[in-house]
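If you are new to this repository, start here. Below is one unmodified record pulled from the training split, so you can see the exact layout before writing a loader.
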Amino acid sequence: MGRSNKDVGGYRGRRTITDILRFIAIALAVAVVLAVAGAFYFQRYLVYTDDGVRLDLPPFLQIFRQEKPETPPDSSPPPDPGDVSVVIEPDGSVSEPPPEPEKVDFALQLPVDDVLNGTAAAQLEQAGAETLILVMKGSDGKLAWRSDERTADQAEVNAPQSNNDALKQWNDGAVYTVARVCCFRDDSAPYFRNKLALRRGQYNWRDELGLRWLSPAHEDAQAYIAGLCGELAALGFDEIVLEDFYFPIQGNTTNINRGDSYDPASFTAELGDFLSQVQTAAEPYGTKISLRFPADLLTDEGRILSGVTDGLLDQFAYRFWSEQEGRIALSALSGIRDLSERTVEIVPQVSEDRTLFQAVIPPAE
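And here is the target side for that same chain:
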């Protein structure tokens, strides 16, 4: 009996080498196609840096990147450079940072009228100044307040009494205020009181500017200036800067009448007496007495003509106010203590049609 065809499976035969090679070829072809497609797709995410090529995947593909985190989760962030409080020296040692330089003070001169009309505070703030300078007695002899000194009345140099009230109120405030006082160069008082003046023959002697001078040797002239300084101290000024506090060094000094009012052999002693009187008048109020002078005063000729010595400057000056040339001359002196801390740098500035008197004051003690 013959077997039915359905009882016998169809013959499939064995896979030949050809079939296997064909399969491998197809798989390789597919892999190449996928690789080329992937290269074109991911090309946009390749970033070329100095360290080589980096693959920056989009956020939805970041899961395929396995990179070591830059900062461990439990570590603290690096400190802000602004928080660094030590300095690492080249040899590896650690030291404290250098201290910040002490802040200097900027001083600005304003007219007394700005105190009277109430605008001084705003002008100081706008200029960034912490100290106010006021000319209280100029070389013309005029005063910016009303003095009780008899010579001031005789010379008709007084200001209204209302100025005293306004200045007293201002000085009761927090602003450090300096009074400039031109001492013996005075074009008013010698005219009314000739006996107090330096004389040339029968006339008042005049300097290179054509201005008269009180005699620094005359007792009444010394008492007049010292009395004015005492009044300014009573008005509350923090510091008084004396200018032209010595015998004249400019002009034709050879034609000044010699005698008790002008004896070169006594110049230094007479200036010492005068400065002592000023300090005594200001001391009860705590007002400082400073000195201003030109560089010419510190030359050999200037010392002879003026009567000023290193000892006088050191003894009687709280601070020295001087322009650049004067500061250079001061720096050459050897007999003055704490010179750099006591020197105020005057820096005049021209503004429109006037010169502004400005100064840089060293840090307070």
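Two things worth knowing about this chain: Residues 15-70 form one domain. The first strand starts at residue 46 and ends at 49.
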